[in-house]
């Protein structure tokens, strides 16, 4: 009897806990001083610095506005946003928040009323095309595109030359050529070609986006795994790279960074934001070059450009939103000089097309043997195929990471993708 | 035979202590190395501790965060010990038919994960905010209140009270002490070891707590140490030497409290098991 009573009381408690938080209260937002806006972002060396520079640049427009920059880790921002938005409490929310492009749609679609439309605050056509789909919903722009995750193939020129190749050989190559060079590099220098973390399928993501394909169909919700030719070839390429023994396995970020800082690997296929980590090892100055990412060998749609990561700014629908939108529009949305500064100071490459004409983008980098790295990246950015990242990028990637291991153990590729499709459909409803 | 036994048991103990000590050793060694050395797994102490420390102090507001963590942990520990020991004492000493039912419900509440309570709690504090800003969202009070006592701690005190000699209570009553007097003058001094163990458990949990402070604290002035460390790792190219230095500093208070109260802690834990 006692047990039943206890169980009953606990159920009531749980029910009470679950039933709250269904409607949003506009009124609970606090009456903020309208001359102050708050921004949440992560990475002190990159996004936070960019914001501080934007704050300086904006002083010329409106010296009254106080921009309060709050640093939070990316995972922390997601946790805080989800808790606040799902409990319908706007108290304490910032005016502007940085969200990674892969995750943007899940926020926009789950809480459409909570974001402030930015369509009139900037000109979408002046930004790289591929940034627009993830940052907009129903034809309205909610995110102001920020940094590009344009990928490059960072290559150790000394290893390359030792293997008998020249930098020109890397131009617009495909993954078969990459494997061919890799085998030669391994043979002559004994170095691995790249590091891979079995939990992180970033390389697969960049491969399929280079062919204009994604884990999800264009609606952003239907899984697009079984029968996805680009994905199939990406899996096959991934296996071929492993079979050729070109990979040094790693299990986390620090080992990944150590892989190239220690000179153990010859290449780093990654987003341009890795530049800072590569340049951290000053003794390797002059020994690196950046080539375009290889394309898929048998896919006619695949181009030598792709994207990994990258984020955009969003304005939340709380008091102060107009000021916040204006702040973004006048800095990240249209200021060419500001983008030059961003580039010189922190190496950030924006997705604002007019910025590529500026001086800073044309500078030669001695670390990369005098290569005009930024010019090259900016040119590649414009070629990145546009895809809709949809709602479930990371959920599907968890499924694929497991199926990838099955595939590597010898399971048939079509069966692998069909099984992944079935799991994804069951999980995403 | 006994020699063989002791060799085996010492081997096991040595391996177990290496496994438990290694992370601490690595943490301390890494705090003296450059980021690039840390990623390459260097196990020898370097000479960059003060560089790391300077970089850390330059990039973040370490001292205010330490103060916030200290305030929260000390308040939580003092309040939690007071409330939980009163409750545990009451549950064990006083007789009532409803007592066991209430206690069972209390224990069942241990089964609800905090993640399930987080959104309703946040909503609750969000609603209080306009009425009573001093205990709403983004205040240190909001961090302390939900953790001010736990079912576990009440359970812990009730179990320890089981071996408290009840005859003393009678003696106290005969000598004219009221119930609160008995609690504070007789019970508290005799249960010192239990309090020490409870203090360590609560202080550590509070000092290290992450999820609730993360969602409820918004402004950087209110940041606690775990949040600060989480931010340090947020960059695309984190400086692992600096992060390790911050972790060493964050570990010191917990370690200090543990070493000071270690003797009592062991005694307290043994007591509650008996």
Automatic annotation (TrEMBL), chain A:
Q: Which controlled-vocabulary keywords does the entry list?
A: Signal
Pfam families from the UniProt entry? SBP_bac_8
Tell me yes or no: is Membrane among this UniProt entry's keywords: no
Q: What is the recorded name of this protein?
A: Lactose/L-arabinose transport system substrate-binding protein
The keyword Signal appears for this protein: yes
The record's SUPFAM superfamilies line, in alphabetical order, gives: Periplasmic binding protein-like II (SSF53850)
* UniProt signal peptide: 1-22
From TrEMBL, chain B:
Q: Which GO terms of type biological process are on file? A: transmembrane transport
Residue ranges of the ABC transmembrane type-1 domain?
A: 66-261
PROSITE patterns, from UniProt? ABC_TM1 (PS50928)
What SUPFAM superfamilies does the record point to? MetI-like
Keywords in alphabetical order, please: Cell membrane, Membrane, Transmembrane, Transmembrane helix, Transport
Q: Where are the transmembrane segments?
A: 7-29, 72-94, 101-122, 134-157, 194-212, 240-260
A GO CC annotation given for this chain: plasma membrane
Regarding the membrane, this protein is recorded as: Multi-pass membrane protein
Cell membrane as UniProt keyword: yes
Highest taxon listed in the record's lineage: Bacteria
Record's subcellular location: Cell membrane
> Which InterPro entries does this chain map to?
MetI-like, MetI-like_sf
Q: Which family does the similarity line name?
A: Belongs to the binding-protein-dependent transport system permease family.
Its recorded name reads Lactose ABC transporter membrane protein
State the organism named in the record: Mesobacillus foraminis
């Amino acid at each position: 009897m006692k047990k039943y009573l206890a169980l009953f009381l606990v159920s009531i408690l749980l029910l009470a806990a679950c039933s709250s938080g269904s409607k949003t209260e506009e009124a609970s937002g606090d009456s903020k001083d309208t001359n102050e806006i708050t921004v949440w972002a992560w990475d002190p060396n990159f996004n936070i610095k960019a914001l501080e520079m934007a704050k300086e640049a904006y002083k010329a427009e409106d010296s009254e506005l106080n921009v309060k920059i709050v640093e939070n880790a990316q995972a922390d921002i997601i946790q805080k946003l989800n808790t606040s938005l799902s409990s319908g409490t706007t108290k304490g929310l910032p005016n502007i928040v940085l969200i990674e492009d892969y995750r943007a749609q899940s926020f926009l679609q789950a809480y459409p009323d909570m974001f402030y439309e930015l369509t009139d605050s900037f000109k979408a056509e002046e930004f790289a095309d591929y940034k627009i789909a993830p940052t907009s919903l129903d034809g309205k722009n909610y995110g102001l595109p920020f940094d590009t995750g344009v990928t490059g193939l960072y290559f150790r020129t000394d290893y390359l030359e030792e293997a008998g190749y020249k930098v020109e050989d890397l131009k617009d190559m495909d993954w078969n050529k990459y494997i061919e060079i890799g085998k030669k590099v391994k043979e002559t220098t004994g170095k691995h070609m790249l590091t891979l973390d079995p939990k992180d399928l970033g390389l697969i993501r960049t491969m399929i986006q280079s062919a204009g394909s994604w884990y999800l169909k264009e609606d952003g919700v239907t899984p697009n795994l079984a029968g996805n030719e680009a994905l199939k070839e990406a899996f096959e390429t991934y296996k071929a790279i492993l079979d050729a023994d070109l990979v040094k396995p790693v299990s986390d970020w620090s080992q990944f960074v150590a892989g190239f800082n220690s000179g153990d690997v010859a290449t780093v296929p990654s987003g341009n934001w890795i530049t800072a980590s590569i340049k951290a090892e000053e003794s390797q100055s002059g020994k690196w070059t950046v080539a375009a990412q290889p394309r898929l060998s048998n896919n006619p749609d695949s181009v030598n450009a792709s994207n990994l990561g990258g984020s955009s700014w969003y304005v939340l629908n709380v008091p102060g939103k107009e000021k916040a939108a204006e702040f973004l529009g006048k800095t990240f949305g249209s200021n060419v000089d500001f983008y030059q500064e961003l580039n010189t100071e922190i190496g950030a490459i924006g997705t604002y097309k007019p910025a590529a004409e500026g001086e800073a983008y044309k500078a030669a980098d001695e670390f990369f043997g005098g290569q005009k790295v930024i010019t090259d990246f900016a040119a590649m950015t414009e070629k990145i195929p546009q895809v809709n990242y949809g709602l479930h990028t990371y959920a599907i990637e968890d499924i694929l990471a497991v199926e990838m291991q099955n595939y590597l153990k010898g399971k048939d590729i079509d069966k692998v993708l069909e099984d992944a499709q079935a799991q994804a459909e069951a999980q995403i409803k | 035979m006994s020699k063989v036994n002791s060799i085996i048991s010492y081997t096991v103990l040595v391996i177990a202590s290496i496994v438990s000590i290694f992370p601490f050793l690595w943490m301390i060694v890494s705090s003296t190395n450059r980021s690039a050395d840390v990623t390459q797994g260097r196990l020898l102490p370097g000479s960059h501790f003060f560089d790391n420390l300077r970089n850390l102090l330059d990039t973040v507001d370490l001292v205010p965060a330490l103060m916030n963590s200290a305030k929260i942990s000390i308040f939580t520990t003092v309040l939690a010990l007071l409330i939980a020991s009163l409750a545990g004492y009451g549950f064990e000493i006083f007789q009532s038919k409803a007592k066991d039912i209430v206690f069972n419900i209390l224990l069942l509440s241990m089964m609800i994960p905090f993640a399930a309570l987080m959104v309703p709690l946040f909503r609750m504090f969000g609603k209080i905010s306009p009425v009573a800003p001093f205990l709403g969202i983004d205040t240190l009070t909001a961090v302390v209140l939900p953790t001010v006592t736990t079912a576990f701690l009440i359970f812990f005190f009730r179990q320890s009270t089981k071996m408290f000699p009840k005859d003393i209570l009678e003696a106290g009553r005969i000598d004219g002490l009221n119930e609160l007097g008995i609690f504070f003058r007789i019970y508290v001094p005799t249960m010192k070891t239990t309090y020490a163990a409870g203090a360590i458990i609560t202080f550590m949990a509070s000092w290290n707590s992450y999820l609730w402070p993360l969602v409820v604290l918004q402004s950087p002035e209110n940041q606690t140490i775990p949040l600060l460390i989480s931010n340090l790792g947020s960059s695309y190219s984190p400086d692992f030497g600096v992060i390790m230095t911050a972790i060493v500093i964050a570990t010191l208070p917990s370690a200090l409290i543990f070493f000071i109260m270690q003797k009592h802690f062991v005694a307290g834990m043994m007591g509650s098991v008996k």
